[in-house]
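Now for a specimen:

…
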Amino acid sequence: MKPGFMTAQGRGSPKDPGGFVFKSCNVTGFQETYLGRAWGAYSRVIFYRTFMSGIIIPQGWYAWNAIGHEGNITYAESECIGPGSDHSRRVEWERKLSDVELRYFIHMTYIDREGWLNEQPKSIWSYR
C-alpha cells in the first residue's frame, strides 16, 4: 500500500498568510503516512503538542510540487509526543521555529484570523 499524506497545503506566495496548524491533536491510523506534501511552493504546516502514532513515515514531509524550493516551505513540529514524533530521520529542510514564531502561529489570532471557528455549528457537547 502506498503511503498517505495528512496534509497538502497550497500556499502559493510568501505574502499569503495562510497555513495549517494542528494544535493538541492525535494522529493515528492504519496506514503509513507523511505529515504533509507541498501543494504550493510556500506550503506551511505546523504540528504543535500533538500525539503521533507509529504510522508517521520517518522523513515526515514530502516536497512534492515544491521539489527544488524546499527553502520556501514551512513545515514544523514542536512539543509533539509518541513514536511518530521522533525527529532523528526527518527531512533536513524541516523548519525549527523560534519561540516568537511558534507563539504567533499557535495563537488564536492566527488560527481564527477570519473568524471561521465561530461560524461552525455548535455540537451537543458545547452545551455542557
User: Anything to note?
Assistant: The first helix runs from residue 99 to 106. The two ends are 42 Å apart (CA to CA).
